[in-house]
């Protein structure tokens, strides 16, 4: 049982790390001389990178704000889930354990899915320039989808684990 608990804790910490990297790092949409994320746009010039924050002058600013909010909420919920897991491990009796943690993880999973799905469907509107449309999804975007899968698996593991001795 200790091995299972250790695996779940490591899996949960990995999920948190993936969410932090996907939320903070600047690589949701990348190309040869540019990279974008949910916070700013950067274009490489011959000597330096010129970065601008995404402002309200963007046509799809509300969608970007939704992505920002759901990714932050997913990260916060995942951290709260780890804290509740540790607290429930020692406080609740068997059969009642980890239901709250599973629900929190499922909400985190839902938030990541919403953010990544909105970015997937609207990324062309975020980058209207023809040169920028030639880019590809970056590793932060891929990490967001991997974090979705990890948080989903983690929430299912908590539901299964609640019945184990």
TrEMBL record:
Task: Give the UniProt subcellular location, in the record's own words.
Answer: Apical cell membrane; Cytoplasm, Perinuclear region; Golgi apparatus membrane; Membrane raft
Its keywords, alphabetically, are: Cell membrane, Cytoplasm, Golgi apparatus, Membrane, Nucleus, Transmembrane, Transmembrane helix
Membrane-spanning residues = 5-24, 67-86, 98-119, 139-161
GO CC, alphabetical: apical plasma membrane; Golgi membrane; membrane raft; nucleus; perinuclear region of cytoplasm
The membrane-topology field of this record reads: Multi-pass membrane protein
The record's section on InterPro entries has: EMP-2, PMP-22/EMP/MP20-like, PMP22/EMP/MP20/Claudin, PMP22_EMP_MP20
Main localization, broad class: membrane
A Pfam family in this protein?
A: PMP22_Claudin
Taxonomy, superkingdom: Eukaryota
Q: Gene3D superfamilies of this UniProt entry? A: 1.20.140.150
Assembly information from the UniProt record: Interacts with PTK2; regulates PTK2 activation and localization. Interacts with ITGB3; regulates the levels of the heterodimer ITGA5-ITGB3 integrin surface expression. Interacts with P2RX7 (via C-terminus). Interacts with ITGB1; the interaction may be direct or indirect and ITGB1 has a heterodimer form.
Q: Which family would the database say this protein is a member of?
A: Belongs to the PMP-22/EMP/MP20 family.
**What's the protein called, per UniProt?**
Epithelial membrane protein 2
Protein's organism:
Engystomops pustulosus
